[in-house]
Every structure is written in structure tokens, then in C-alpha cells.
């Protein structure tokens, strides 16, 4: 099937819109000239006789027939009859009809131009019957049908893959919007209540908290519109989030977090790390027993590493990471779509000791 691969790689697309472009047309013409030369025009040069002029006219006519059937099959018959309506019998009938039509038309041209007669005289062989089968023409016709059908199937697969990718990207966008919506009202109002309480006891801290909250909202609303954001901004966002969440912690919960150092100007999908940290605060805080939350974040040599450890609060009967918010499943999907083969995620849950570990590495 090397011809199929050559055509599939060489043709930019089998869609009608792209086929109208001059570049695509040029590629199509070049490929047909090469195939025509290899299949129809080159072999006669190895013969011991010199074919008559009308022989080349007949070969050119055959090449045109092949091209017409190829595009009819690739653009209409295979996509509509075989792939859309799944009418296998109708498609087989089309293939038989197209093959018979090519053989009949080619034979009519041969007879009208006298090619059969002249070739018989040159070869010193009896004249072939007008109703005899041209096996060489028949095999090339089958080859054209098989190649065009294969290309139509490959194009359908590619279109389906692109459609699936678009849907997944839209899903990612929806998830990001969901994450924003989740942060905006819930986190915003809870933090405002904490800041309001601070205004009675520690005005400087309340002012700093307001500044951090404002910076976070600006990042969520404006800086995450693009597909990627600087790692430095993402880290600043996480720092502000952790600082504001620290205001809500009780004495029983101990938080460990150090500002990471970044050794380069890297880019990352915005708000990709927040669900892991958010769930540590959601399920790892306690007002009755000692609990620890440890967050380690590092960016070195184009590799981001996030490690999150937290105790599962005894106030939680069950620890469901996916309950509410964007969830672990959706976060994994984002990672798989945005960083395929460029990330590694390890999650360990110890139900006996009620601990939860997450280790994420991303090749930026």
C-alpha cells in the first residue's frame, strides 16, 4: 500500500475547501502526473516496438478516467454511501459500475482510434476481440478504487479525530470556566468575611489580604483567558490562595509551604495546579484533631514538581476528591490533553493512617 501512504501524506486535505487552493491543486496535478507516468507511460518504453501516436492519446484518456473515478469515489461514493449511510451493497454496486464504465469507455476509444489494430500489426498477433477484457486496465482501475476508498476512510478518521479534539478542548474550556465560577463566589465571599473580621483586630493584615484577593481575581478574570500563562503568575496566584486560606485555619491544622524558586521564564496552562491544593484545604483541615498540610512546589530545568500531603480530617466520613469542583478525573483529563507524555501523576491514599499524597511532575 505504498501508493496510499504517498497520497495520504502528500495531499494536504481531502476536504473540498482546501482542494480549491492553488497549492493543493498543484500537489494533486504533480501526483497524478507521476502516477500516470509510472503506470501508463513508462512501461511502453521497455517494449521492443514503438507504439503509434494514438496509443499515447488512449493512455492519456485512461489517466483522465482514473482521475475522475478517483475523485468521485473519494469525495462522494465512499464518504456518503459507505461511511455515512452505511450502504455497503450500493457502494459495491457503484464500484462495479465504475469499473465496467472505465473498461467500456477505454475499449471504445481504442477501437475508434484504431489502437488495437495497429498494436496487433506491430506485434504480429491476431487482432483482439472488442469484447476481450483488458486485464492491465482492470487491475489499475481496482487499484485506483482501493486507494481512493482508503484515503476517504483515513480522511474520515482524521475528521473524527479533529472533531473529538475540538470537543475535548471545549470541554477543557468549560472546566476552566467551572473552576473560575467555583472560585469566584464561594472563595470570594468566604475570604471577604475573614477580611472583614480582620478589620477589627489587624488592619494592616486585612489590607494585605484585600490586595491578594484583588490580585487573584484579576488573574482569574483576565490573565487566564489565554491557553497558557507564565509560571511566575501561576505561582503568585497559588501563593495568594494559600495565604488567604491560611487565615481560615484553626490551631489544630498546621500548614507548611515555602515560596518556590523558578529558574526560567516558563509557560503553563492556567489554574492547572489549584484543584490539588484546593482539595488539601477542603479535606485536610480539622477543628478537633491535629492535621498537617504540606505543599511543595519547585520549577527546575523546565520541570515543574508539585507535592501535596494532607491528613484526611476525621470529620470527613469519606474522602472524595472528585466531589464538587473540577475533580481529580477532570484534572487528569486536562493533564492528558494539555501535556500528553509530558507529565506524571502519582496519588496515594492511606485509609488506615488517613493521609493523602499527590506527586505531579510536568515537563514544561
Task: Give structural attributes.
five-stranded mixed beta sheet, 11 helices, disordered N terminus, alpha+beta, about 375 residues
Describe the structure.
This protein has 364 residues and is an alpha+beta fold. The chain has eleven helices and seven strands. It has helices at residues 2-10, 16-19, 22-41, 53-84, 88-113, 115-123, 135-201, 203-223, 231-246, 274-284, 327-338; strands at 229-230, 253-257, 267-268, 291-300, 303-311, 343-350, 355-363. A five-stranded mixed β-sheet has the order 2-4-5-7-6, with helices on one face. The protein has a two-stranded antiparallel sheet with strand order 1-3. Helix 4 crosses helix 7 (135-201). The two termini are 39 Å apart.
The largest β sheet comes out as: 5 strands, mixed
Radius of gyration: 34 Å
* Overall residue-averaged pLDDT value: 76
- By helix and strand content, what is the structural category? alpha+beta
Amino acid at each position: 500500500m505504498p501508493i496510499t501512504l504517498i497520497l495520504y501524506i502528500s495531499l494536504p486535505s481531502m476536504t473540498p475547501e482546501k482542494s480549491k487552493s492553488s497549492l493543493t491543486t498543484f500537489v494533486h496535478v504533480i501526483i497524478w502526473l507521476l502516477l500516470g507516468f509510472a503506470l501508463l507511460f513508462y512501461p511502453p518504453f521497455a517494449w521492443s516496438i514503438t507504439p503509434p501516436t494514438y496509443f499515447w492519446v488512449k493512455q492519456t484518456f485512461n489517466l483522465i478516467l482514473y482521475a475522475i473515478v478517483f475523485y468521485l469515489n473519494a469525495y462522494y461514493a465512499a464518504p456518503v454511501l459507505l461511511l455515512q449511510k452505511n450502504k455497503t451493497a450500493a457502494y459495491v454496486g457503484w464500484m462495479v459500475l465504475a469499473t465496467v464504465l472505465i473498461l467500456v469507455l477505454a475499449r471504445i476509444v481504442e477501437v475508434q482510434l484504431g489502437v488495437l489494430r495497429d498494436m496487433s500489426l506491430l506485434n504480429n498477433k491476431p487482432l483482439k476481440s472488442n469484447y476481450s477484457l483488458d486485464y492491465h486496465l482492470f487491475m489499475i482501475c481496482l487499484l485506483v478504487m482501493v486507494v481512493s476508498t482508503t484515503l476517504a476512510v483515513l480522511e474520515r478518521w482524521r475528521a473524527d479525530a479533529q472533531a473529538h479534539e475540538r470537543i475535548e478542548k471545549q470541554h477543557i474550556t468549560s472546566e476552566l470556566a467551572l473552576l473560575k465560577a467555583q472560585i469566584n463566589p464561594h472563595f470570594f465571599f468566604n475570604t471577604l468575611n475573614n477580611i472583614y473580621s480582620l478589620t477589627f483586630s489587624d488592619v494592616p493584615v486585612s489590607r494585605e489580604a484585600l490586595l491578594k484577593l484583588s490580585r487573584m481575581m484579576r488573574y482569574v478574570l483576565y490573565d487566564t483567558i489565554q491557553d497558557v500563562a507564565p509560571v511566575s503568575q501561576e505561582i503568585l496566584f497559588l501563593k495568594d490562595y494559600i495565604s488567604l486560606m491560611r487565615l481560615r485555619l484553626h490551631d489544630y491544622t498546621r500548614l507548611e509551604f515555602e515560596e518556590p524558586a523558578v529558574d526560567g521564564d516558563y509557560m503553563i496552562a492556567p489554574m492547572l495546579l489549584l484543584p490539588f491544593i484546593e482539595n488539601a484545604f477542603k479535606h485536610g483541615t480539622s477543628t478537633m484533631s491535629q492535621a498537617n498540610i504540606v505543599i511543595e512546589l519547585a520549577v527546575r530545568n523546565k520541570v515543574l514538581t508539585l507535592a501535596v500531603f494532607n491528613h484526611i480530617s476525621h470529620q470527613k466520613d469519606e474522602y472524595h476528591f472528585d466531589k464538587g469542583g473540577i475533580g481529580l478525573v477532570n484534572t487528569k483529563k486536562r493533564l492528558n490533553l494539555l501535556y500528553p507524555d509530558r507529565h506524571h501523576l502519582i496519588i496515594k491514599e492511606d485509609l488506615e493512617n488517613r493521609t493523602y499524597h499527590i506527586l505531579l511532575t510536568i515537563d514544561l
